[in-house]
Structures are given as C-alpha cells and as structure tokens.
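Mods, move this if it's the wrong board.
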Amino acid sequence: MRNLKKVRKFLPLIGIAIFIYIIHDIGAENIISSLSQINPVFVALSFLIFIPRIAISTYKWQLIAKMQGIKISLLPLIKINLIGLFYGTITPLWVGDWIRIFYLRDESKECLGKCASNVIIDQLIEFFSLFILALFGAFLLSRYYPQLFFLLLAFFLLLLAMAIFFREKGRSEKIFRIVYEILIPEKMKESIAREFNAFYEDIPPISSLLIPLIIEIFSYILFFLQIYIVALSFNIDIPFLHFVLIYPISSLIGMIPITVSGLGTREGALIHLLAIYGVSPEIAVAISLSGYIITYLIPSIIGGIFAMMHEINAQNSG
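Not the wrong board. Structure tokens:
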C-alpha cells in the first residue's frame, strides 16, 4: 500500500518530465520565438469566444440539473463551473472538478448524493462529447494512423458500457455492497446508504441526455475555435474542420493521468498529429501552450478568484 501511494504521488510527474524533454529537444528559444508570432488581436478575439462558450456549457449543465429537480440559476452555476475549472486544471484527470459537487450542494441546498450524480453526469457528457469529436478525427487520420480509430472506438464502447452498467442502482449496489460492509465504519453506514440512494434519485433516462450532448459538442467546437484562431497567428495551413476534429485526440491523450493539465502528453501528441499538415514541432508546442493559456489558465485564474472570495465570505459569515 505504501509503494502504491508513492507511485500515485509521482505518477503526475511523468507528464511534466515529458514536457521538459520536449522543450529541451526542440529548444526553448525556438518555442519562445514561435510564441512571439502570436497576434494580440487574435488572442483578444479568441478569449471573447470564451464568454459564450462557458455560458453554453453551463446551460447544458443547468438542463441536466433541472431534469434531476435541482433548481439553480445560470449565473451561480457559471461561477461554480469556473471554480471547478480552477481545481480541475491543477489536478490529474480533472478530479479537482469534483469540487463542484460541494459548491452545488451549498448553492442548491440539495443532498450531496444528488449533487454528486449531477456533476458526474455532466462530466460524462463532456467526456463523451470530446470522445465523439476525437473519433471523427481518428477516422479522418485513418490513412496515417490506421489503428487509432479502432483503438479509440474500443475505449469509447467500453466506457459507454460501463456508464450504462452503473446507471442501474441494483447493479451498482451489488458491487459496492462489499466495500460498504467491509470498509465503511458502522457509524457512517446510515449516512452513506442515504447518500447512495440520493445519488440514484431522479437520474434522467439516457435518451433525455441527447440534447445536452449536442449542446456540449457545440461548446467544444467553440473551444477548439478559440485555439484555431490563435493558431492562425502561425500561418498554419489546416482547414478549420480538420483542426476541430484532430485537436480533440491530443486533448484526450492529455487526460491520461500521468501529468497535470495534460502538459507533455498533449504537446507530444500534437507534434505528431500536426506534422501531417507540415507544422513544425516548435509551432505545434506554441499552439498547444497558447491554447492552454487562453482556454484553461486565464479562465481558471478567474475561477481561483471566485474560490477565494467564497472562502472569505464563508469565514466572515461563520
């Protein structure tokens, strides 16, 4: 168990090491020189698109909340979404985004179990939306990477099967009962059972999630449009549709939990993917870094400010 904890502690450093190696291999001066080509007008236009994107993505989340009987207005949800973005950006596999569960509970006054299922459903919608775009991108690149599409499709179907399996309360109950009986202290069993029941209360049918899925796909298109606009500063010759379908592949690879914010793994994947279109490694890294700053880093700073304000207000009211 102690060795496992050590591995888990140092696992995210692998991606950071990959990132450092990529910077060293390409040359920091080459990447800095490439970044200096960025057009400030493009940066401003790209960041402006973030406003409708976060609103659309949060509206999708609000739709799911309404399906579960969670009443909350859009503006507080946007603030919680930005706070989740802040914590998700600094943790592997975006596990920090789960902080939204507690903020949603505080804002909506619903039980923790229902808020947990709501956030997890929202995360799954985001994940499957990204996966769908990546599948189209892998199909587009099947001439160069013939196995990639089938590999992603296999993972997609596996994750979809798992989501469908655990959607049923009875099946989940059979699996988690062992954990419940052995690991949960007696004094906590009643509250855990109550939250477990609340988790499965009012879960919407899968068919009703089609509209949120379509909305999130559109939100992701805006997300990659932000990066594409900045990438135009480097005079790339990539059709917009190709870029929007290929970039999700690197985003998925960046979610492998061996790094933080996808640093290293995302850049490594992007170097190979964009090389097909004649993009040099230093430009690929510059696109990735500038896209990360505009789509994640700056918005996450805003979320961090909201998080600090929330804690200050909580302390003052306490």
